[in-house]
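tool=predict chain=A
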Amino acid sequence: MRLATTLFALFLALPLAAQPTVDGIGDDPEYELLGTYTQSQGFGDWGLIELKGFADATDLYLYVGGTTESNFNSLYIWLDIASQTTGTPSGTALPTSSGGFDGANPTLELPTTEWGIRLTHGDPGDGTDTGFINVVSYAGTSAADVFLGALAVDGTAFDADASGSFAGGSFAYLHVPTGLSSNPGDRGFEIKFELADLGITGGTSRASASDLFQLFTAYANPDGSFFSSDVIPEVPGNGSANFGNAPDFTALPGTQATTASALPVELTTFEAQRTGERVVLSWATSSETNNAGFDVELRSTTGDFAAPSFETVGFVAGAGTTTEAQAYRFTTDALPAGTYTFRLRQVDFDGAFAYSPEVELALGVAGTHTLSAAYPNPFAERATFSLAVAQEQPVEVAVFDALGRRVATLFDATLPADQARVLTLDAADLPSGLYIVRAQGTTFSDVRRVTLAR
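tool=predict ok
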């Protein structure tokens, strides 16, 4: 793409990483593993395997790997959001609701419980081989239950009614009918909620950079009166025992809440600006978690400089973990005329990484032309030059020895405007010595000297 201006800015309310695909398969690289269940299952070969989460500036994604029986037994997720304090306090039994959460009122160890999510799987013998989703808000003294809809059990995403509650939500369940022993570990229930639907507002970004999420998951029978030992975090040493009716999880060993998970590095702006023959890249983050820094990567998309992959041209250290906004800046070396694509490779201290969106910038020719110095100089086998012109014109590039004799012609054709051309002087048939490279067009004439030393 050719840009008419020398400034291209991309303003973002997006994370550095892409978003997971809601399809009931939890192998998306964006997810953070929050917990696993490793003991034998309390309801036979049914229940939970793992819990994963991902959050960016606008959405929260949760994945629970596992398999439900087709008899209306239910998979529950309870959620605490650090910035909210109106839910059921820790150590208090959850209130019952009048919908899909009937009877599911355990006492939880979450700091507060603002939200509950329930997936129920109907009995195919009754013609109900279907998943049913409910969400409940625990704000206030009662629990308000919302039925979001039915979904297939083959991983097909179900999007909530755009005119109803949780309009930005998307849900999928990939059922493994033969049980957990046949589940490869990455099949289960996957959901996406817009943060605004969970009470986190702020336009196109989070209201608070310090929002943390804690969760608890369980597998229970339809009325919530019989809880399997399948819970994440799991209860140490519990084996395959069941917890009975609406248990008090705060009285059990271990901490029955996942570790608070922060949002990943959030890129709020990323822009590229031409300064002479260099490019200045500027970007900012609203918060960072475990951020070691940014590799700055470049790829040319013009003419002979076009490359199939990015190359790293610099590194800028990150701020580690912070909820404060951060600003960064990087200046490239001089670049020949052409079109360039830039991106950031954000790297965590543990080696995990994610890519930013890409920005593209066209560098035009300042003046009538640009002719680079030879590289390398002196040279033993080949030397390269780059040439670009501001106006399309016929150009000849010739090589002369120290006596003024023409020994090679590197280019003799029309050169388009603002497209750098790489020229190579091959010394296979030349003796050592000084050579003059002359580039001449209708608007300019220029020379470079290069030394062949074998």
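The chain has a mean pLDDT of 81. The chain has no helices and 30 strands.
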